[in-house]
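Notes to self after the Tuesday call (sharing in case useful).
The group wants a holo model before anyone commits to mutagenesis around the pocket. I volunteered. Ligand is MU-OXO-diiron. Logging inputs and output together so the record is complete.
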Amino acid sequence: MPVKELKKGVYTVGVNHRDRKLFDELIPLPDGTSYNAYFIKGSQKNVLLDTVDPSQDELFKNLEEMKVDRIDYIISHHAEQDHSGRIPDILKRYPEARVLTNPKCKDFLMDLLLLSPDQFQVINDGQTLSLGDRTLKFILAPWAHWPETMLTYLEEDKILFSCDLFGSHLATAETFVKDESKVFEAAKRYYAEIMMPFRANIVKHLEKIQNLKIDLICPSHGPIYDKPSFILKAYKDWISDQVKNEVILPYVSMHGSTQKMADHLTRSLNQKGIHVKPYNLTETDLGQLAISLVDAASVIIATPTVLIGPHPAAVYATYLINALRPKIKFFSMIGSFGWGSKAEETIRSMITNLKADYLDPVMIKGHPKEADLKALNDLAERIYQKHKELNLL
Ligand code: FEO
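Result:
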């Protein structure tokens, strides 16, 4: 990513990682990602805000191109290695630099990067640092991915360096958001996969920054927001308690019975004015499933029985849904079995994080018959009544 001056003396020096396909060996990255790092040349002190993933070298090229001969502080917002990974190498090149971070992040960095205590300067929530002509204010924001995450506000220039918060996995030549619909989708995917489990914390962080005057939001991934209201408004919607009149239906079927049940339930719900998003778990992009969980009111898992339990694809999806803690209000399941099944009790035991009402499931023997289709219509009616009680339709 070429160096770009964002405001006088404030530069973006990070890198795009266009061909990265997975994050944490788990999260699909259809558009690659970027590791954003920033450099501020103050009248008395120079700071580097975060580094980049250990696989990337372009940060050093950027600093050389800018002829940076001194770094006083490396501000570490987050110990995860996609941002901290090159701190040891920066310290080798700029041995006068100190890693400036909060106590928890210091502990993590010592464990993860084997840094020593004398390489740090510790700050706490609300503390400021003068660079001479500028002032940095540090805002602790635990669980804006990990427990040690924090933000930095550059007061004079009204820039919020937001770490993973407001990020998007998007490698792009654009420094600032240009295609809002593309960034919206990428940021929503990012929120769903990274931030949604910590929704209650994110609510508090947004309250904490709501009175800041912000011209630019500079996240650690994806393009910079020069119209911050775009992403702030999106986040307010995602973290709200409001849900949409939607049923998410992740399904897997071996011999067609569960597929037929899922299709019938979809039609029945559609006839009642409820929007259904089915996801075939043998081929779906789990990132798309995660995005849909941000707003939906209900989830129905559809699984056949394999070796007495749920299909492993349904187990994986249920595990993920439980881990992501969406704000869904209702959960149920449907499925078919041959001679016996513990699929329901297994799936039900896996949703301990969800604050959703469990609606009676429809588990049937063999191919669906008239009575089974009627049971699915009854489930659709229960969902309809529940959505109606919430004024969703
Ligand atoms: Fe981008 Fe949680 O690291």
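Two things stood out.
The first strand starts at residue 4 and ends at 7.
The first helix runs from residue 58 to 65.
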